[in-house]
Structures are given as structure tokens and as C-alpha cells.
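Closing statement on the EPU sub-project.
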Amino acid sequence: MDIFKITGGRRLEGEITISGAKNAVLPIMCAAILGDTPSVLRNVPDLKDVKTMIDILTSLGSKITFEKGTLTINPKGINKFEAPYEMVKKMRASVCVLGPLFAKYGIAKVSLPGGCVIGPRPIDIHLKGLKAIGATCTINHGNIILKGKALGGEVFLGGRFGSSVTATANILMASVLCKGETIIDSAAMEPEVVDLANFLNKMGAKISGIGSHALTIKGVKKLHGCDYTIISDRIEAGTFMIAGMITQGDLFLRKANANHLRALIDKLIETGAIIKEYKNGIRITANKRPVSTDIITLPYPGFPTDLQAQMMALLTISPGMSVITEKIYPERFIHIAELNRMGANISLEGPTAIIKGVKALSGAPVMASDLRASAALAVAALVADGETTIERVYHIDRGYEQIEKKLCHVGAEITRIKENQK
Ligand code: EPU
């Protein structure tokens, strides 16, 4: 397993181009199998999770090529309708094949995703929605089996934590080929859901209300493949904004979309950043330590849970006390112990982290545990005194395209030590 060695204390300055959005492309790849002809997806990030999804769709029988950020998916050969445990256990987004397989073939079998390091991640909302539009659902030997015909209906997707992003994606994909009309109430509004709906409409679907909590889908008989460019990754952009801020740097993030990052921008300005928005990106400049603040993670357009850990890393060096409450995944705090090993002073009271600012962090050996927690450790290491080694960086590789190259390009000192070089 690769390791990162990061030497702290370098100011980040320059330009980084943001890649395509992981959480947009994964469901869109699944949606491509709804077409009768191939789809071409552009601005696709070269990530481990994208490769896992290629493996899943290939195992179903689709033909896929991936070259220089362009993915072509030909669904013609699909003759299997199952995503097995070996694949689902690697990536929970595998569950996104449920909706399209059920819609197009009337059958789908997906292994139930198990536990997750960021807390419980049930899929009851997915199943409730799929049943509401006509699926019969059984759970057998750890697999979910859907059968039947998508008919349409009214679906309420609100859960304890607001709506669900991939459940909304699944119901959308399941309903586009329905006989009748589907209304999804309390749909997730994340930009990645909007991107999926726009892609489906380009394939010939009839979805209205895109970007709101109420989506109406008029079923069509057929969908065709199309050529589509994936939106830029708001979480990658947000992570680099925080990296720019913590190093008191000056970064231009090409392709970052400020409209997708309002909650973060608001908080970064509050903590002292200077932010300028352009048509083709965002510039962040900082020339002092961040001011402490309080944050609550919420569904979009609230502050994203996927930036909670990175923001916590930033606040470890804010004078005074900051408070972060995690409302989406109340147990997503595995990074606290590792940040404390680097000299941070963070304690946890239920789903609320209390961060008492310290003067400086110190480099230490730490362990990556999940994608965003690992990104937070990398952010902290950028300002820590001395060297930090991060083990198990495959977690970062799941969702950040060439993160060390991008950060080194703007002045960071990061070396990847490959498994075979140790
Ligand atoms: N939930 C349920 N039942 C369900 C589905 C969700 O109780 O059937 C709960 C979850 O346990 C959680 C909340 O609802 O407490 C929201 O979960 P959601 O379903 O929205 O999450 P997701 O769709 O599984 C996506 C992203 C995550 C991101 C969350 C929240 C993808 C592939 N994944 O997951 O991304 O954290 O939305 O924004 O889109 C990441 O990229 O690091 C990541 C974890």
C-alpha cells in the first residue's frame, strides 16, 4: 500500500485544474446502461472508484473504453443483472446499478452493502422508493433482488437526515422508462443529482423540477446514448480551497464552480479568506491564521459532510474554539484521533466536535481511514512542523485524481512511496 511523505510549511501558490466530479460520474455511468446506443462521457476523473464502476458494468456485459478522460459505454451486450459482493464491498456507489437494471431489464440483484467506516449507511430509502414505483423486493443470502416492471407513482424520499443522494439517483434512473408518471418528493438537490438528471434528459428522458426537492418524471419508451460532459468536483475544489487557506497561500482553482460551493465559501470568508469568483474558477487568498467558527453539516445547499474533515483540519490552528456538528453521518469522526496525534486538541460530544485551536501541528505518522478523512490529514500535514507520513493512501486515490501531483505543482512537498519501493 502506498504512503505519502509530506513536509509541512510550504505556502501553496499557483493554479490547479479541478477534475470531473466522482459522485456525479458514478451514477451517470450506471445511467448510461439505460440507453439503446453507446454514451460518451467527458471530463471523467481517473480514479479508483471509476475503475471499480467500469469493472461492475463490464461484468454485466457492457463494453467500455476509457482514454484521456473520455469514457465510452456501450450497453448492448448486457446479459447479467447482478453486482456481486466482491465489487459492492469495495464501493457503496455500486448500489446505483439497481435502478437502471430494474428499469431496463425488470430484474436486478445487488449484494447488500455492509458496514462503513463513516457510520451506518442503510439503503432502506432506496428500497422504499423502488417499491413505490412497482418493484418487488426480496433480501436473500445478503443480496437485494428486485423484480417487476417500473410503473411510476409517488415517492417520498425524506429520511431522518434529510433526503438521500444515491436513493434519489436510483429512483430517478428507475423511473425514466416507467409506463406512467413518477413524482419524487423530498428529492436530494445536490449538484451531482442535477448532473444525472441533465444527462438522463439528454438521453431522451422527461424529467422536470431539476434542482428542486420535487422531481416529476414522465416515462418514455426508449432512451438513446449521448455525449455528455461531467461537472467539476466541488469536493475536490473545496479541499484545495481549504489547503490554500491553511497554508496562507494564493490558489486559482480552474473549473471550480462557486455556485456549488456557497456554504464553504461563506465559512471560509468568515474565517478570513479572500475569495474571488470568476466564470472559469475561484481564487482564494489568505494572509493570516483562520478565525474560529462553528459549522453544521447538512444536505445541499448546506455545508457538505464531505468537507467536514478537511475543515476540521483547518480549524485545528484557529485561535479560540470551533465547533462542528455532523448531521449527515453522526459518527464520521475517525480523523479526530489522527489529527490529535499531530498535536490538535479536538474532543467529541456526541455528533459534535469541539476544536480548541493550537499554535502549531507537528508532523507524525498517521493512518488514512476513509477518503475525506485522508484528505484532511493531507491538509493538516501541509502546515505541520516537519514530516508527516500517511499510510493507506489508496483511500485518497479513490476520490482525488493525482492529488500529490496537483499539490506539488503549487508548492507542496509530497512524495508518494510506492508499495514496491518500501
Ligand atoms: N440514509 C438512510 N437510508 C438510506 C439512505 C441514506 O438512512 O436508504 C441516511 C444515511 O445513513 C446518511 C444520510 O441518509 O445518514 C444521507 O446519506 P445519502 O444516502 O445521501 O448518502 P449516499 O448517497 O450514500 C452520497 C455520496 C457521499 C456523501 C453523501 C452525503 C456518492 C457516491 N456518495 O452518499 O460521498 O457523503 O452522499 O452527501 O454520491 C464521499 O464522496 O466521500 C462520500 C461518502
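DSSP finds 14 helices and 24 strands in the chain. With this model delivered, the sub-project is considered complete and its resources will be redirected to Aim 3.
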